[in-house]
Sequence to fold (610 residues):
Amino acid sequence: MINKITLLASLALVLGLHSAEGGDITGKVTLKGAPKAEIKLPLDPLCKRTVKSGVTPTTRFYATDASNGLADVFVYLKKVDATPTPTTSVVLDQKSCEYSPYVVGAQVGQTISVKNSDPILHNVHPTPKKAGKEFNKAQLPNGPELKFSWNKPEVFLRFKCDVHPWMFAYVALIEHSHFAVTKEDGTFTIKNVPAGEYEIEAVHRKTHPKGVGLVSKVSVTDAGGSVDFTVDITK
Amino acid sequence: MSVPDWPNTYGYNMFYFPLSQWVGGIFWEHSHRLMASLVGLMTLILTIWSHGRSGRSLLRYVILPLSILLTFLVLINAENNTLQHASITGGTGFIALFASFFWPRMKPASKLMRKLCWIALIMVIGQGLLGGLRVTLYKDEIGIIHATLAQLFLVLLVAIVFVSSKRWIGWKAASKDNHTVTNRFSWMMAALCVFVVCQLILGAFMRHEHAGLAVTGFPLAYDQYLWPPTHAEFVNQLNVDRMDHRDFNPVTALHVHVHMLHRSMALILFIAGSLFVGWTLKYLGRQHLLGRLSILWFSLLCLQAFLGVATVWSNKAADIATIHVLIGALTLALGSFMVIAARRSVFLAKEASAMRHREMPSDLIPTPEVAVAKG
Fold:
């Protein structure tokens, strides 16, 4: 009898845990409308030397693929409880006088490390509006990483380099880990979302300058969930 | 803010910052700081100069002890590059001591001149501190005050140049004229200068918001003859459509309003300026110095208006926008000079009239009744 109870309890626990793990939310963000052409970056001679031959760096406002999948869109769940802050860092690299990645997500309190892989001096100038303190620090060529962290959410917190006025990166800071940034084909995956009904938001930095994007609902089961967005710039 | 620290430059004492590192935005910001230091130094010399032979005492008993104190503080407090800082502060003291032996033994300048020099020195120090606070506190508002104070400092320098010139003593421009006309001229010009200062403040606001050009197109503003719409949907669409490698802060409705206010005030200033020149030429004539200066001032205003339009058409190209700011400053400086010159004329004319009055025998001075009867 005791063995049966133990077996049932174990089964319930396994099922419960499985249910708590939930599934992945997948989807795609598509751009509707034709944006203006991207602009060639006016690199100075020092920066030009760091760029591979044949490459023409441009702005990255609307990065789309052949199917109009829109990259660099931050997708995250709304009204979700905070999750523990990861101990790993989010890394921004300055390479060929550009920040990489251009858009990245992070949790509040998480360390954001900024590298300088260029043989050129940069200044790292994050300009938060809500998250907290502004900084402006010099970073020597291949110098040690600069580390930052903020304790309030902000979508998007801008990093810039004033020496090279075309250099930007945007960090979306939120309080939990259920987020993703769309890839080059516009697809995204938010992993390990517990089963349930959620509000989900997709924010594109250029189209949603105030950080308020497209909101939708998604139902997550153990098999996961799916939701697509269309960013319409024809309006 | 290409140079993130202050008063240092990337950790160096700013006068030791290697030339090889003057690249990109650093070149402009570092040059700005060095020019500011030069202006500060020249203002300090001017202030000491205004005290004539007493300047020797100022150099020996004020500048030298201050330099020694600063050097001492640097030696015990500086975390790095101590020798760089100490060489500048200590070197300043040494130069002050050296200069005190050769300082000219001339008469001090007038009390007014000395007062103006001290105000200039306080302003230039304040301006330097504001520039530093702008860097360390990351406040755009400080940048707006910094830009405005720079214009007022320029006006003060114009006053100092005029007061210290030989022409100040023997200023004759309008002393023989009807000083009522000159008096009106000065007040009208002063009002126009206040208008120009307001324009410069609006311009400083537009620059320091780092939002780029809030309204494109001229003479229409977003295809509107008067005021473009500023509702949320329209402003959002502006930001969506805007492509610029500088990736400015998003335009807001406030930016659009301020931009349009700047345009409107420019139009009012242009109309008022043309009426003012017409009035001046009618009452003072083309041969009169103030008449000729008015034409020059109005020419600057026209050039400034053209540069404003060019700034819009070029999507706020840095060189054109900078010349626009420069001509704005020159317009204010010339206008201020005209106000001071006119006020000086009125003062001298009144003084000459009073002197004639004093020299006249008492029985020839008309009584109020006679004066009224004569009209």
